[in-house]
Design brief:
By secondary structure, the protein is α/β, with parallel strands linked by helices. It contains 7 helices and 6 strands; from the N terminus they run βαβαβαβαβαβαα.
Length: about 230
């Protein structure tokens, strides 16, 4: 059977310690082979240490604009009075930021990652904000500048040459967290499957309402037997 490159990417690496352990367990005992790190998360240093201890886990950057605090000094216009980003997962209904400020912020996040000494595998973003039409040129600029790739989104179809895989699936989320969703992956072009495994810690409930599903994801990702045609 035709072999297919299947990237099982865990988002939010570095967000909290529970996310870190959930991702690592899903890698060491399960099918997760990639993770993207939030450089403004609560447990970034721990995530970096874990990534260095387990180099088989490919690691990229989960660019943030809709959660947490910025890293660049130039990002004040992107924040609320409390210093956190003003944008949310409803960004398509919100006033667009200055793309240059987003570029400088995301560059700072990438540079923070590079400063760890880890190898940059690819880029994606929290809430897929890199596909926001108002700023979508930023991810292209950064991918070219850092000689890397980014998560495939159809809105960025014109730059398929910069996609990390030829297909992307966000189906393993919410009600779609099931063995059937993984079974539905078919041989063909390379594909990335987005996942969010975690253990629940004291901080995570204050960060996200997506909680119980993360535990279910972790168990499914550990229990699932990788088909022979996955590479």
């Amino acid at each position: 059977m035709h072999k297919t490159h299947v990237l099982i990417n865990a988002d939010d690496f570095g967000l909290t310690s529970g996310v870190n352990t959930g991702i690592l367990d899903s890698h060491l005992k399960g099918i997760v082979n990639s993770a993207t790190m939030m450089m403004n998360g609560y447990a970034v240093d721990e995530a970096v240490t874990l990534a260095k201890l387990h180099p088989g886990l490919r690691v990229g950057v989960h660019l943030a604009l809709t959660w947490g605090r910025p890293l660049a000094k130039t990002s004040t216009p992107l924040t609320k009075e409390d210093g956190t980003f003003r944008y949310t997962n409803r960004f398509l209904t919100e006033a667009a930021p200055d793309p240059e400020l987003v570029y400088l912020e995301w560059k700072a996040q990438i540079e923070a990652f590079r400063a760890t000494g880890l190898s940059l595998h690819h880029l994606d973003s929290h809430h897929h904000v890199h596909g926001w039409p108002a700023i979508q040129d930023v991810i292209v600029r950064l991918a070219e500048e850092y000689d890397t790739t980014f998560r495939a989104l159809t809105i960025l179809d014109a730059r398929r040459d910069l996609w990390v895989t030829e297909r992307f699936s966000d189906q393993f989320y919410g009600d779609g967290v099931s063995r059937a969703t993984l079974d539905a992956i078919q041989p063909g072009d390379s594909i990335e499957v987005m996942v969010h495994p975690a253990d629940i810690d004291e901080i995570l409930p204050s960060v996200t309402s997506y909680l119980v599903q993360r535990l279910l994801e972790k168990q499914l990702l550990i229990d699932y037997e990788r088909p022979d045609w996955w590479v």
